[in-house]
Write a structure and sequence with these properties.
The chain is 76% helix and 0% strand. The chain has 10 helices and no strands.
Length: 301
């Protein structure tokens, strides 16, 4: 998000440790989604919700892998090599944008569920819209960015990082503008959701121990903030300031986004926990039955 790089050890440690935790969390998230998929995707909206979560996790995981590759290349070569950096930058650009566009689709899906402003959308139609928004739009932006900067070779930065150029071509705007626009849209969706909850009475559809409005609102904000990518809004501060504090906050929140997605997007979902417990109970029961059968068979011999 920032047009300039800060050579600071604290930022480096926070970034690499946070990204490593995120990558491990995203792998776990994908495993859990695969295990409980059939149990939690029986209606169309739940199906599309988990399609979105799955693709958010995939996009962020691949983007983080590309980020690590780009960081290694940048450390080995100064100034950075266009030939070695460009593929990493392209896929990083594409998959980070895909992350944002899938978060946008998830926000619009929630907006649709809350407001019902349009008629019923069939699953096949929603899938088509989701993949056009989630991968089609980012691919178009990434390709146009490469094409528009190919001539003067101002696609990537020259020093300190493998990332989109700022000083000569302002190619970085091809990431910053879509990302911040989506953050703004998702923030408005969050406000609408909170408004609808307050109007309906948040305690009407919640459990007995969660009926206090402030607790329900706080839980809603905590869950939706990382899934909607709202922490990337701190990027506006890193775009205009070299103050180390804002950069540390930004790095801390966004390097751990994968961990937050695992916790708030998957583990805190009551349906996911129930389905996962059911799967684990069935496995234990099956294992116990197999052991008993083997023991009985041995005793008869």
């Amino acid at each position: 998000m920032s047009p300039f790089s800060l050579d600071h050890k604290a930022l480096a440690y926070i970034t690499y440790i946070g990204v490593a935790i995120s990558m491990a969390s995203l792998v776990l998230c994908l495993i859990i989604e695969t295990i409980i998929w059939k149990s939690v995707t029986r209606d169309d909206t739940s199906y599309m919700q988990h399609v979105s979560i799955f693709n958010i996790a995939v996009s962020l995981l691949i983007a983080n892998i590309c980020f690590i590759i780009g960081a290694v290349v940048a450390e080995q070569e100064q100034p950075t090599s266009v030939g070695r950096c460009s593929p990493a930058v392209f896929f990083m650009h594409f998959f980070y944008l895909a992350l944002f566009f899938w978060m946008l689709f998830l926000a619009l899906l929630l907006f649709y569920r809350v407001t019902r402003m349009v008629s019923q959308i069939l699953r096949n139609e929603m899938m088509t819209i989701a993949f056009i928004v989630g991968y089609g739009a980012p691919l178009l932006i990434a390709v146009i960015t490469v094409a528009s900067t190919a001539g003067p070779q101002n696609y990537i930065t020259r020093q300190y990082a493998c990332w989109l150029n700022w000083d000569e071509s302002k190619a970085l705007l091809a990431f910053v503008i879509p990302a911040l626009t989506i953050v703004a849209i998702n923030l408005m969706v969050l406000i609408v959701v909170l408004y609808k909850m307050l109007r309906r009475g948040v305690g009407a559809t919640t459990q007995q121990d969660e009926k206090h409005p402030l607790l329900v609102i706080a839980r809603c904000v905590a869950i939706l903030t990382p899934i909607f990518g709202l922490t990337w809004g701190f990027g506006t501060g890193t775009m205009v300031s070299r103050e180390i504090g804002i950069h540390v906050v930004f790095a801390l929140l966004n390097s751990l986004q994968g961990f937050f997605i695992l916790v708030f997007g998957t583990l805190l979902d009551s349906k996911v926990r129930k389905a996962l417990q059911g799967k684990l109970s069935l496995q234990k029961l099956s294992s116990s039955h197999t052991q008993n059968t083997s023991a009985g068979s041995s005793s008869t011999h």
